[in-house]
Amino acid sequence: MKPRDHLDQPDDTVMNGTTERRPRRGGGWLLALGALALLTTGLAFGVQGYYSRNRELAAVAEQARNFIPQVRVAAVRPSDDIVQVSLPATTTAYDVADIFARASGYIETREVDIGDKVKKGQLLAKIAVPELDDEILQAQATLGQLKAALQQAQANLDLAKVTWQRDKPLVDQGWITKQQGTIDVQSLKAQEAAVGVAQANVNAQQDQLRVLDQQQAYQQVVAPFDGVITQRNVDIGSLVQADTTNSTFLFAIMQGDVIRAQVFVPQDQAFGLTPGVKAVLQVPEIPGRTFPGTVTRIADALAPGTRTLLTEIDIPNPDGVLTPGTYCTVELQIPRKTPSFSVSADAIIFNADGLQVAVVEDGIAHIRKISVARDLGKEVEVRDGVKKGDLVILNPPVELAEGSKVQISPAAVGTP
Q1: Which letter, b or e, does each residue of 400-409 get, where b requires 16 or more Cβ atoms within 10 Å of its Cβ?
Q2: Known SUPFAM superfamilies for this protein (predicted)?
Q3: Whose CA is closest to 374, among 331, 345, 414?
Q4: Which residue from 91, 92, 246, 261 puts its CA 20 to 30 A from 208's CA?
Q5: Mean pLDDT: which of 22-26, 28-32, 67-71, 365-369 is highest?
Q6: Are the folds of 103-222 and 255-335 the same?
Q7: Strand-strand pairing, 349-351 and 354-361
């Protein structure tokens, strides 16, 4: 092939029957310049956005530093002088007596049964003891004999006195021998001794007769106090025994016009509890009715195992609605011995430092550690850390710290 002149050479070259177009050098530089311009513009926009975002972040940080949050607060108030404590209790009878036989024999009559209301001294049953009646008749006859013997001894004594009074002047004058005088004196002393023996026999027999009369009185089984018969263990004709070790159980009687309630008061509530403290008893099965009473007896010593104080409350029960053995609740009104303050439970902060509250003073939050005396649910009683009138923050923010500035929300001040 014959070479071509460079200037006259066309841009297209035919190779293997195809046409290849060669790039022009001037167009490549234009593309490079355009890409550089685009890159420069992008960098400019990026730098501008970066500085804009930094300014916004700085503004937000400054706003956060200067932001004073609004908080709700509640005023601390002293706890009431009376502590109302509600505890489970059990009712018992005021007086309960098991009546046993004091005379051996057969039940002749039975006047009462279970559930009967009786009065003091009312006849419950009569025990027939025929041999006791015979013993009493024999003892009465013996007493009569002894009294007759006493009269005889007294007559002999009187005779001895008269004889000595008559013989004494004659002995002194020598008309009667001194031996006779001695006999008269000794006879008088013997008769005095005989009267003493006879009188002692009479007294002993009278004592024996009183024992038999008392045993006869035991044949009449009577109620020791007003109450209700709760148990009966005998019927007419039953054989009963009366001895010191195996007397027959006859009846059980309960005094029901006054009911005792036994309650175990925990240690933290027992201080301040004394006889005379008012109480109110409620029974779940008797809704809508309360039974007022008074603390009458306390154990004066805590049970070592449970750290509780046994307390008894007397409840008037004139209509007999309350029965012994009933589960109930007792509300005690105990005078407070140690002062405390009521704080809303929403103000409590619990973390690694223990229990705390945040108190607002002059727009500054101060974190104070507290000790809780009682948890009452919506509020707690604290012993220290706060004082009357302090404003505690309700639901304090997590980021709240000592010295943080806060703003009290309008109309958000109240009592817990």
Answers
A1: beeebebeee
A2: HlyD-like secretion proteins (SSF111369)
A3: 345
A4: 246
A5: 365-369
A6: no
A7: antiparallel
What does the pLDDT average to over 248-259? 91
3-class DSSP assignment, residue 239: strand
Q: Give the domain ranges of the chain.
A: 70-79+339-408, 103-222, 255-335
Q: How far is CA 262 from the centre of its chain?
A: 7
The tens digit of pLDDT for each residue in 283-308 reads 999 998 999 999 999 998 888 899 99
**Which of 96-100, 227-231, 265-269 bottoms out in mean pLDDT, i.e. has the lowest?**
265-269
> Look-up: residue for tokens 């008769």?
191
Does domain 255-335 bear CATH number 2.40.30.170?
yes
Beta strand pairing call for 18-21 and 12-15: antiparallel
φ, ψ dihedrals at 213, nearest 5°: -65, -40
Angstrom CA distances, 213 to 54, 192, 207, stand at 117, 31, 10
| Contact between 256 and 91 (Cβ < 8 Å) | no
Report DSSP letters for 274-291, one per residue. -TT-EEEEE-TTSTT--E
Strand 407-408 relative to strand 70-71, pairing = parallel
Name the residue with higher pLDDT: 384 or 178.
Answer: 384
Could you give the residue ranges of the DSSP H alpha helices within 218-321? 267-270
Detail the DSSP E strand segments found in 10-81. Answer: 12-15, 18-21, 70-71, 73-75, 77-78
* Cα separation, 91 vs 322, whole angstroms: 8
Pairing of strands 341-344, 349-351: unpaired
| Residue 281: C-alpha distances to residues 81, 91, 323 (Å) | 21, 10, 13
Residues making up the chain, counted from first to last: 416
Give the span between the Cα atoms of 391 and 346, in whole angstroms.
13
Cα separation of 93 and 85, whole Å? 24
Tell me the C-alpha distance between 99 and 19, whole Å. 139
Nearest Cα residue to 195 out of 234, 233, 156, 221: 156
Q: What is the CATH number of domain 70-79+339-408?
A: 2.40.420.20
| Domain 103-222 -> CATH class | mainly alpha
